[in-house]
Amino acid sequence: MKTIIILGDGMADEPIEALGGKTPLQFAHTPYMDKLAAAGVTGRMKTVADGFHPGSEVANLAVLGYDLPKVYEGRGVLEAASIGVTLQPGEMAMRCNLICTEGDILKNHSAGHISTEESDELIQFLNEKLGSDRVKFYTGVSYRHLLVVKDGDKRLDCTPPHDVPLQPFKPLMIKSETAEADSTAELLNSLILKSQELLKDHPVNLKRMAAGKDPANSIWPWSPGYRPAMETMQEMYGFSKGAVISAVDLIRGIGVYAGLEVIDVEGATGLYDTNYEGKAEAALEALKTNDFVYLHIEASDEAGHEGDVNLKLKTIEDLDNRVVRILYEALQKWDEPVAIGILPDHPTPCAIRTHTGEPVPFLIYKPGQTPDSVTCFDEFSVRKGKYNVLEKDQFIKELIKE
User: Fold this and answer.
1) d(CA 214, CA 344)
2) DSSP state of 213
3) What is the phi/psi pair of residue 399, to 5°?
4) How far, in Å, are 184, 207, 386 from residue 179 at the CA level?
5) For a pLDDT cut of 70, what percent of the chain falls above it?
6) Residue 285: partners with Cβ closer than 8 Å, 6 or more residues away
7) Residue of 207, 239, 234, 231 lying closest to 117 (CA atoms)
8) Do the Cβ atoms of 332 and 35 come closer than 8 Å?
9) Cα distance between residue 164 and residue 284, in whole Å
């Protein structure tokens, strides 16, 4: 049996008063996820292992069944793999956001969701001015970029910028966890402050401000690590071939280390305007030649970070109608059975605008299986499902079990 996971990043939430005490997933119109839940089995998954920050890198690795203490090396290394940067021994990679500051306040983590084209001009400029034999900047997607430091010490206390919107940034700058890491922390903080001086009057930012947009007036490095030692999914589960579809470098990088083919989809943005239908069609095409497909949709997470309840509802309904519906209707006509798993990686509650580590709802649908009693898909209905709370590799093993 072939397998597809449809991952709605940050789709889970908490009850919201404006929605009558319902979560966005409860309130949204999701007939196809509900149909699959009613025909399948449900439960919750603990995607954030004890002692780990509830980041998307942690949660998506967990969904795929990886042992976090063995493989986790931060977010930067995964994004390096996605954009084709091969880390050498002694090189430390970090996610490097372009952010917007306003005075001493970290206004937002995304510089107003700056375009990749604008970002590329800024990152190349920073690499020209701040890069060296030891420091290199690489362009990623939108506000998400890469910083590689030769002989960097990863024992650093770094704050993810999406966790601290509208807070003073100076107390949140990088701190060393050991004396040996002091020089690395000093270097990185120096780069942050120098970037602010260089970026404030850059033509890209002057043009953005003139258009009423937030400037990308600072870098923010975080999540340091070295090249991870990961088995491929073929080695772990016996797949012959697998594929990943995502607009996000982090997920694509996980796919590289997991031995999955990275499939590009034109118009895939990682935001609410992403090419949902294109991703669904690409997933169907990939299932023809692959045993396993990981289809990642980022939009709900970004809506949660914006604290925008109406936008989050739209992203959930778009996922249901423009992805799940297309896949469900097409796969019903296939002779070969396909198992479908649907879940978020973590909650991103609109009220707090960042990730939490609460267990997330999941559904598993396989043609001909005996369903449980759950008839709709949300954070609370699945508590009456077949499974209580799965963790580690339990979810994916249940999904691929024939």
Assistant:
1) 29
2) P
3) -65, -45
4) 10, 42, 50
5) 100
6) none
7) 207
8) no
9) 38
Strands 167-168 and 105-108: antiparallel
Q: Tokens 């258009």 identify what position? A: 211
* AA identity, residue 372: D
Instruction: Please tell me the predicted confidence (pLDDT) of residue 337.
Output: 95
Stated as kind and residue range, the H or E segment containing 35 is helix 31-39
Which tokens belong to 400? Answer: 């691929």
Residue in the block written with tokens 């691929």: 400
Cα separation, 129 vs 131, whole angstroms: 6
Helices and strands counted in the chain (H then E):
15, 16
Answer whether 104's CB lies under 8 Å from 171's CB: no
Taking only the tens place, the pLDDT of each residue in 187-199 is 999 999 999 999 9
Mean pLDDT value across the chain: 95
The amino acid at 380: F
Instruction: Give the 3-state secondary structure of residue 270.
Output: coil
At 334, list the tokens.
Answer: 């296939």
Q: Are 32 and 323 in contact (CB under 8 A)?
A: no
Three-point CA angle 275, 206, 220, nearest 5°: 65
Give mean pLDDT, residues 130-134. Answer: 96
Residue with tokens 């590329």: 120
Q: How far apart are CA 339 and CA 373, in angstroms?
A: 19
Encode 154-168: b = buried (16+ Cβ within 10 Å), e = exposed.
bebebbbbbbbbeee
Alpha-carbon distance values, 197 to 126, 129, 264, 330 (Å): 11, 11, 36, 53
Q: What is the share, in percent, of the chain residues with pLDDT greater than 90?
A: 87
Give strand pairing partners of 79: none
For 109-258, list the strands marked E by DSSP: 135-141, 144-150, 156-157, 167-168, 175-176, 218-225, 242-245
Looking at this protein, which amino acid is placed at residue 84? G
Nearest to 76 by CA among 186, 16, 171, 152: 152
Instruction: Please give the angle made by the CA atoms of 181, 183 and 188, to the nearest 5 degrees.
Output: 95
Could you write out the three-class secondary structure of 289-346? HCCEEEEEECHHHHHHHHCCHHHHHHHHHHHHHHHHHHHHHHHCCCCCCEEEEEECCC
